[in-house]
């Protein structure tokens, strides 16, 4: 069944991607003069991603806590276990800009749409690229648009999130915008890491937790990173490790 699920997903993806890319380009062209944040195109791609997730009958996605998504600028931070986390996160259907690996932007169809939506590329391990990514994030936040970051920087091999890097939290403190924890479960049953095989059955759950408001952020991004990670651990039913320090690197 795993082979069948994998084959089916790629058949659906490959048959819809060119069409959706063409429609997306048309939406971008028509809305460009008055939708400078690319919200219409983002909403269309969110819908396509949700359809992809529901294309295999063994996969189910439940989105909870949308009421906790604040209007305007915020930093959404989610745990990261699978390549399918992005598809699941798009089910939020909330205007935001994803921070994603630079290599993804070179992928046909998907990467082209990400470029049209002006998502934010990042090249790990390059300080100048990290600073450019943070500057892009600041620009969107100042325009009133949320940014979505996976603060672990890579996939966790277990349900327990890796230490959160401080970049997202440094950004929120500097711009005085809320931090919104997003807890993702079950995506490893769709695809573990980058795959390649997909699971035949998965129950995916995406939960938005109450935000940490600007007045409660504090001044220490490392402390804030640890606090938000503890919120993820509690939501996942895991206990926080006393005295564990979050990752010091920016992203």
From TrEMBL:
Domain named Phospholipid/glycerol acyltransferase: residues: 74-187
Keywords: Acyltransferase, Membrane, Transferase, Transmembrane, Transmembrane helix
GO biological-process terms attached to the record: phosphatidic acid biosynthetic process
Membrane-spanning segments: 7-34
UniProt-listed Pfam families: Acyltransferase
Pathway linked to the protein: Lipid metabolism
Molecular function terms from GO: 1-acylglycerol-3-phosphate O-acyltransferase activity
InterPro entries in the cross-refs: Plipid/glycerol_acylTrfase
SUPFAM superfamilies: Glycerol-3-phosphate (1)-acyltransferase
Protein name: 1-acyl-sn-glycerol-3-phosphate acyltransferase
């Amino acid at each position: 069944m795993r082979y069948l699920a994998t084959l089916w997903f790629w058949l659906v993806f490959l048959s819809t991607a060119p069409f959706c890319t063409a429609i997306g380009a048309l939406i971008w062209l028509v809305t460009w003069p008055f939708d400078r944040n690319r919200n219409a195109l983002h909403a269309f791609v969110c819908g396509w991603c949700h359809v992809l997730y529901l294309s295999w009958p063994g996969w189910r996605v439940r989105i909870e806590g949308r009421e906790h998504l604040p209007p305007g600028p915020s930093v959404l931070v989610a745990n990261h276990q699978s390549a399918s986390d992005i598809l699941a996160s798009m089910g939020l259907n909330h205007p935001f800009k994803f921070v994603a690996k630079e290599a993804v932007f070179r992928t046909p169809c998907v990467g082209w749409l990400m470029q049209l939506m002006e998502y934010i590329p990042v090249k790990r391990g390059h300080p100048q690229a990290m600073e450019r990514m943070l500057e892009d994030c600041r620009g969107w936040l100042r325009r009133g648009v949320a940014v979505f970051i996976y603060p672990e920087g890579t996939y966790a091999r277990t349900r327990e999130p890796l230490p959160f890097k401080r970049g997202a939290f440094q950004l929120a403190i500097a711009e005085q915008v809320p931090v919104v924890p997003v807890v993702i479960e079950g995506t490893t049953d769709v695809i573990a890491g980058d795959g390649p095989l997909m699971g035949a059955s998965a129950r995916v759950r995406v939960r938005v937790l109450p935000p940490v408001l600007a007045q409660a952020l504090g001044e220490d991004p490392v402390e804030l990173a640890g606090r938000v990670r503890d919120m993820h651990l509690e939501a996942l039913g895991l206990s926080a490790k006393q005295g564990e320090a979050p990752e010091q690197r920016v992203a």
